[in-house]
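To: structure subgroup
Subject: Chain for Friday's discussion

All,

I'm putting the inputs and outputs inline so they're searchable in the archive.
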Amino acid sequence: MASALTFCLLLVAALADSVFSTQRTLRSWVNLGCGEPCRERNVTTLYLRADGPNDTLHYLWDFIGTPSVLLAVTPPSVYLNITWDDYLARRENSVVFLENSVVFSPSYSFGVIINKIIEFNDVNDTALIDTADVTNMNVLHSEYFNWRLVSLLQNSEFVSLDMEGNSYHDTAKNISRYGSIKLSLRGFCTVDHSDMVPHMLHTENSTQVDIILDHIQTNQTFARSRFAIELLAVGGGDPDILMFVDPKKSLDDEHTPGIFEVVEVRTPPYREQDGALNAGSYLQWRPVSYISASRDVTSSTETVQYPPKQVFNYTSIKNSMLYCYYGDEIANLLLQKIMVSLGSKGDGFYKKTNYLTWTFIIGYGTPPEERFSSLVIMIISIGLGLPLLIMVITGLYLCIRRMPKRHGNAYLNR
């Protein structure tokens, strides 16, 4: 009985996985068609195509100026084109999509800029950046790091790009810092959990971004430095509605021990879509940061997310790849900032280990929901089925023992 129950549950899980999984084929190129100008400037722009049966997701991961990610949805016949001289000069319309050599407008597009790393002096150990005043804050602009390619893995099922930014120098304020920011981007072809802790659940329509702040030099006057990361979200969605923040509880911490929550930030629908929340993009992360490279439970701390805010001054975006695509049209698009601070009260601040991580997903469509894995289902079914089987066997045994006995001697006495 227990084995039958286990088999049925595993079969249901397998069928569910097959229903929710769609395979895409990945193809990627670094500095596609650029050649010598990119080699001379040591720049990195990765173009990733994720071809599905009905559409193609285009991703552009860019580290020229402010690091940014663009995703766009088109038919499979459409391809991306970069005019490199204009692109390197950060001019608008230097990134376009073409079909039969004619400019094509994607059915949906969305972009994220890793805009600022904000250091704040947490004098009261609240781990909240919104309680710090301006005198206790320093802003590091990501465009002032010197970005270099560390490693690249490309195949039809998985694409991985590791970048490192160091030698920070703010040319406007003449501020320099030692230390590095490491960015790891991952592209996927199907639904699964990432092999990188905190093992985020991704779909075939998503990119994972992992950020590490490694021995970033802190302000000498700050005794209790913490860091926060500011993202800018640009593109699809009603520009007059703030993005939706939805922290979700989970019963399962199998993949990220001790963390039973996933934070989702979804773009608002376009005005004509009457509240259809599944038509846009989302950001998703677990509210956990790690203070060592081991990334285990003992080296974990928390993150704090803050309500999205609209941005009305888009001049800072002009040094990003998203300006090359959207141009001045950004003024009419959704443009909002998201702030996440790293650390929790009593964790020793950044100086304890000089190491912090944050991992998030950028995806298109409906955010995936955590489900119990086949292993967990098997364990639960055995845990429930085995006691049930023992109870049934015990009940049958007691019933048999209490049944009236047949006296064989009665036949011998006849």
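Points worth raising on Friday:
Residues 1-20, 274-278 have pLDDT under 50 and may be disordered.
The radius of gyration is 27 Å.

D.
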